[in-house]
Design a protein that fits this description.
About 55% of the residues lie in helices and about 10% in strands. With about 300 residues, the protein is of the alpha/beta class. The chain folds into two domains: about 1-110 and about 180-300, Rossmann fold; about 120-180, Histone, subunit A (Orthogonal Bundle). Helix 2 links the parallel strand 2 and strand 3 (about 60). InterPro entries: Dimethylallyltransferase, IPT, P-loop_NTPase.
Length: about 300
C-alpha cells in the first residue's frame, strides 16, 4: 500500500521546511493543503514557498489559481485525490502539507455530504449580520456549537453563515457533521506535527508578519484591493490592510491587528490538532539527529 505523510501544525511553525526535507529524503513530491496558497496573487501574505524552496522539491496546488476563481473544498478533494493517484504511480510515498484543517481532512478522510445553502436561512442570517453585526452571528454559533466555535475563524462571516445554516437545516452540530468520515482511503496515512512553546510560536508569528511587510505585503494587498470582497481575500494579512487603505485604521494598528489575528488563528489550529491522537510530534528547532530518528520511526510505521 502507498503512503501519505501529512505535515501539520499552526501557522508560522516551519511546516514548509520539514515537508521539503521529507520530500527530498523520500525522493517524492508535495501536495499543498493550504487553501490560501492556492492563489497566485497572494504569495507574500500567505507565506507561500519561495522560488528556491519550490526548486528543492516539486509542489502541487501552489499558485495554481487566481483569486477570481471559485474553488470549493469539494473540488479540492477531487483534484487532490486525482493528483495523489498520479503521484502514487511513480512514488511509494507522497507528502501533504498545510494548516487548513478541513482541507487536510478532505484528503485524508473525505467530508460528509452537507446540505446546500438554504436561501431562507441565508437571507435571515444576512439580515442579522446587517442589523446586529458579526458579533451576533458569533453569539448564535457559540450557543449552537461551542466546539466548532472554538476552531472556526470567527471573523469570517461566510463560515459563520454556513455553519449556522447547516445546523438549522439538520438540527445537528456542524462539528459533528464534519467529523464524520465519508470515504475509505487506499493509502496509509502518517501525520507529523511540529510543536513549540506558545510564547516562542507567537514570537515567530510576530516576526513573520514583520518580514512579510518588508517583502512587500502592503503593495501586494494594494494590488488586490479591488477584489477585497472575494472569499479568497477574506484572509488575515489582507483584510486588515484594506481597512488601512479605507482610512479606518493607521498602518501601525493594521500591522498589530495582523499579528494578533495570526496568533488567534494559530490558537484555533492548536485547538484542532490537540483533539487528534494520531500526530507524531517534533519539537521546533529539531536537530539532524531528531530528523533521522523521525525517518526511522516513519520507516517502522510503513513496515
Amino acid at each position: 500500500m502507498k503512503n501519505l505523510i501529512s505535515v501539520v501544525g499552526p501557522t508560522g511553525i516551519g511546516k514548509t521546511r520539514l515537508a521539503i526535507d521529507l520530500a527530498k529524503h523520500f525522493n517524492t513530491e508535495i501536495i499543498s493543503c493550504d487553501s490560501r496558497q492556492f492563489f497566485k496573487e497572494m504569495k507574500i501574505g500567505t507565506a507561500a514557498p519561495s522560488e528556491e524552496e519550490l526548486a528543492e522539491a516539486p509542489h502541487h496546488f501552489i499558485g495554481s489559481l487566481s483569486v477570481q476563481d471559485y474553488y470549493s473544498i469539494g473540488q479540492y478533494e477531487e483534484d487532490a485525490l486525482k493528483k495523489l493517484n498520479e503521484l502514487f504511480e511513480k512514488h511509494d510515498t507522497v507528502i501533504l502539507v498545510g494548516g487548513s484543517m478541513m482541507y487536510e481532512k478532505a484528503v485524508l478522510e473525505g467530508l460528509n455530504d452537507l446540505p446546500e445553502a438554504n436561501a431562507e436561512n441565508q437571507e435571515k442570517l444576512q439580515n442579522i449580520l446587517d442589523s446586529d453585526g458579526i458579533e451576533k452571528l458569533q453569539e448564535i454559533l457559540k450557543v449552537l456549537d461551542p466546539e466548532y466555535y472554538a476552531v472556526v475563524d470567527i471573523h469570517n462571516h461566510r463560515r459563520l453563515l454556513r455553519a449556522i445554516d447547516v445546523i438549522w437545516q439538520t438540527d445537528t452540530k456542524y462539528s459533528e457533521l464534519i467529523a464524520v468520515s465519508q470515504d475509505s482511503r487506499d493509502f496509509n496515512v502518517i501525520r507529523i506535527g511540529i510543536e513549540a512553546p506558545r510564547e516562542e510560536l507567537y514570537d515567530r508569528i510576530n516576526r513573520r508578519v514583520e518580514i512579510m511587510m518588508e517583502k512587500g505585503l502592503l503593495e501586494e494587498a494594494r494590488r488586490l484591493e479591488e477584489f477585497k470582497d472575494l472569499t479568497a481575500l477574506n484572509t488575515v494579512g489582507y483584510s486588515e490592510l484594506f481597512k488601512y487603505f479605507d482610512g479606518e485604521w493607521d498602518l501601525d494598528f493594521a500591522v498589530s491587528e495582523i499579528k494578533k489575528n495570526s496568533r488567534r488563528y494559530a490558537k484555533r489550529q492548536l485547538t484542532w490538532y490537540r483533539k487528534a491522537n494520531d500526530i507524531h510530534y517534533l519539537q521546533i528547532g529539531y536537530s539532524q539527529k531528531d530528523f533521522e530518528d523521525l525517518i526511522q520511526w516513519i520507516s517502522e510505521q510503513f513496515q
